[in-house]
Specification:
single chain; 175 residues; mainly alpha; Bromodomain-like; 6 helices; 66% helix
Length: 175
């Protein structure tokens, strides 16, 4: 009885799909860290803190689509580029928050609440029971930067990384 020795087939890794999987981990990880800070360590987010979570959720959603759906490589590469643009928007939001914290510019009205004279009784009661944290109040600094400052840096690095990776993947193949 002849047994034919078969060589194992090499495992092929799709670099575009792996990039999207990494972005999915980044997006979910950032949101998870924010929630741990909020609920485990009692860091109360202001409205700008909450806005800074949105780009990570968008990137996680785009990445999940790219990983789970049977899309072409070209569409997946475009999702990586879109993630880069979303991270640029996230960097702008975070930088705006840094400016509010440093008093470079005034906060949006949602950061400080509505003046009592301009509220209805229902709005006033709602604000009493759910106090809003001012956006210029910094709870945590690490190496001299607030969390918004670190998010500005991280978002810029991620944006550049996504855009460079998208370009690299585009020059590597054409499917």
């Amino acid at each position: 009885m002849d047994t034919v020795q078969r060589r194992p087939q090499p495992i092929t890794v799709d670099p575009v799909r792996m990039t999207l999987a990494a972005l999915l981990v980044v997006g979910l990880g950032a949101i998870g860290m924010a929630l741990v800070g909020q609920f485990a360590f009692g860091l109360v987010p202001c409205i700008l803190c909450l806005y800074q979570r949105v780009p990570y959720a968008v990137v996680a959603g785009l990445s999940a689509l790219g990983v789970l759906l049977p899309l072409t490589t070209t569409v997946r590469r475009r999702l990586v580029a879109m993630a880069g643009v979303v991270f640029l928007v996230g960097a702008a939001i975070a930088f705006y928050h840094v400016g509010v914290e440093a008093h470079w510019w005034a906060a949006a009205t949602g950061c400080a609440g509505t003046p009592v004279g301009q509220m209805t009784m229902e709005q006033f009661q709602a604000q009493i029971f759910t106090p809003q944290k001012p956006c210029d109040q910094v709870d945590v600094r690490f190496l001299g930067l607030s969390l918004a400052g670190w998010n500005t840096i991280a978002s810029l690095v991620l944006a550049v990384g996504c855009l460079l990776q998208s370009r690299r993947l585009s020059s590597g193949s054409s499917t």
